[in-house]
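User: I'm preparing a small set of examples for a lab meeting where we compare how different chains pack in three dimensions. I only have the primary sequence for this one, and I'd like the structure in token form so I can line it up with the others. Please keep the answer compact; I'll paste it straight into my notes.
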Amino acid sequence: MEIGLAELLIVAWIAGTLPILIASIPFSQLNYFHQFLLGFAKRGKTMQSSAHKFTLPQKFFCHFYALAVVWTTFLLAVTWFYAYKMAPLISKPLQYSTLTSYLAGSSHILFFHESSPPAVKQRYRVWSSVFLLSLMEFQVLRRLTESIYVFKYNPSAQMHIFGYITGLFFYIAAPLSLCCAFLPEAFVLAMNQMADFLIKGKTQIPVTEFDWWGFVNPLLKLKWYSWSGMAIFFWGWIHQWNCHAILGSLRDDPEQVDAYVIPHGDWFDYVSSPHYLAEIVIYAGLVVANGGSDLTIWLLFLFVVANLVFAAAETQRWYLHKFDNYPRDRFAIIPFVY
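Assistant: Understood. Below is the structure token output for the 338-residue chain.
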């Protein structure tokens, strides 16, 4: 039985999430496993200076985002070209019956299935992948910019090498999960086009006017849930931007680069790790923008939630231990819940 890219990603996300979920179960018998896994997850302020075996500087975080920008841009270009060539969307006027069915909530709450012909559904799925990769491009470009210009990492801040490898894996697998259903075909098409160009040469290939509108117009025809997901995505995106700016401003004074202070403002008024909360909102936006129909993206989201909740709990413990005056009404990551 042939195993496809989507199946491999499903296995990878399950394999990455299960240990975190098991370590999070509040059983004393699992405490050793919890501490073992926590040793790989600690970084920066939560990692003791004496525990620097098999570690790398935390400033290497920028490697994740540099890789993510290059990889996501490549996937976006290949998938977008494939969508333009192989999945054209026919322009149809918006019918009153269609609009009223949306307003009446006739779409499935979870999967948002439409009554379109299968071929049209497939085309929408292709352009949905382009849409999701475009959102991911916004995310990784901002994260790369922040890692270079916003964050002022403590010179002694470290992260475990396993965490470094996990980060590299995540930013390869996450964009892949947004387009895995069509990437093999898209890659073959791109390779064939490249081979055709190399064999025939530029002079032998008919020159046609580049249709910018043909590349963009189909995105405007996506379903309502794509735009709802985009709104959720940018809600989290903006708050993460604000929270990262707050964290970066705490070390504006070069003489205080080794000092830790309590952050305030934005979602910091509610939780200790609002940048993690914003990341969860961002990936929830991707799930909604996809229409909730792709298991791979759901598992990606579950991994993000499990990983960040696990890390936020340790950050909360560190703050409470470090500062006697730390606000006791702040939750770890989910306001009024946890």
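A couple of notes for your slides: The longest strand covers residues 55-57. Residues 91-117 have pLDDT under 50 and may be disordered.

User: Perfect, thanks.
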